[in-house]
Amino acid sequence: MWRKMIAMCMTLSMLLTLTGCGNSKTASYKGVTDSQPDKGLEIMGDRVTYDPNHLVNDGKPVELEWWLWDAADLFGSIAREYEKIHPNVTIHIVNNPWDGFWTKLPLALQKGESGPTLFNVHNSYQHLLLTYMEPYDIDVNDLEADFFTAKSHEIDGKIYYCDFGIMTGTIYYNKDMWTKAGLTEKDIPKTWDEFREIAKNLTIFEGDEMVQAGFNYNGDFENLMQGVPYQYGNTIFDETGTIPSLTQDGQKKTAQMMLDFYEKDHVGDKDFGTDAAQSFGQGQSAMVYKWGHFYGYLKTNYPDINYGTFEIPTVDGKPFAYDRYNGEATPGINKNARPEQVEVAQDFIRFYLANQEKQKELCMNYSLFPANNALREDKDLQSNPAIQAVSEHIDRYIWPGAMPATLGDNLKIACQDMMYNGTSIEEALKTAEDIVKVDLSNQEFVASENLYDKYSERK
Asked: Rounded to an integer, what distance in angstroms lies between the CA atom of residue 128 and that of residue 405?
């Protein structure tokens, strides 16, 4: 008897737990009603505008979930600001760790209206999400007028997400080491040849032992291999955007230049620690190549280091593109959510895109160059060294597209083979190219390189 009662209690408990998951909360959700369409608030934005003075869902209570993997307080503050305008709306923030996010989210979206209404997007997982996404109910021309990278996300005349900011690579240098070597800001190199000489000047040996690397790219070789070849006018994919081209002259020359830094110039060494980030922070390396998030890494782990940044050098000062970039994306909308939730989500996305103050906060948090044109000259953003370094030539950076993981993974293996196993450049790159071709033949991937407005200048 007792066992039956316990079993019944456990079953009831499970049912109550399940009814508390996802959007099924709405069954018991009461909320409040909003009966004041005129909020007395100003219209936000430039071309993509948001007029707060209206009711959403006719002022009736509605709730939805927003899934993300990071910065719950910051993204949550955007939701809270929206809820103040529309008190009938409740947005539940669900923060899932990155490691499990891309397993949990597609499974949740398969549940239709029981899945999250809003979810943060990373473009490398676009192929997993697009089938569940509702396009933005915003004029594409307005989006492209306000956000300079929006066009690269256009699919059949629609935009399902875009960037609020972009990140790319820069050179971080130790200012104290520069001063000690007799260098000043006037010596900041523009070309790789100039960079090589600076790196030599910054390298210190004690006998045969390197105690200070002039340039350390350990852990970033493959990242340089995905960006520097553009300087030679080569693209990563062919004109169809579906076939990888990893064995062109630009790729080979980039690999040779990086290997020469260590093997001929001896400004660094493959055995000088595997982590250039830590080596720089500990004052062992004078220059490293890192993306914008390195600013936050240093602030957290090495707040006392005296450093500066400068734009990545180029081959001849007139590159087809300086480097690739990647964007931090705006949220996606679950097309299978209930109609009232989709309505609110569309309204929220317009608020999100027109709210320049919140976009500024996001860019500051992640050290991103703002995608919103209105924030390009913002003084606070320009004070961030990771942003300032790329500001002058930002239109000369290229987005390859939602890069499939196989490309980065196999370039990493190729770089390791070249550095540690003595594999020739040609063989390592050809092996990587062949494997990526096979992997991509099973995916519906198309690169976005041809959307770059300088694409016709490639060689």
From this structure: 13
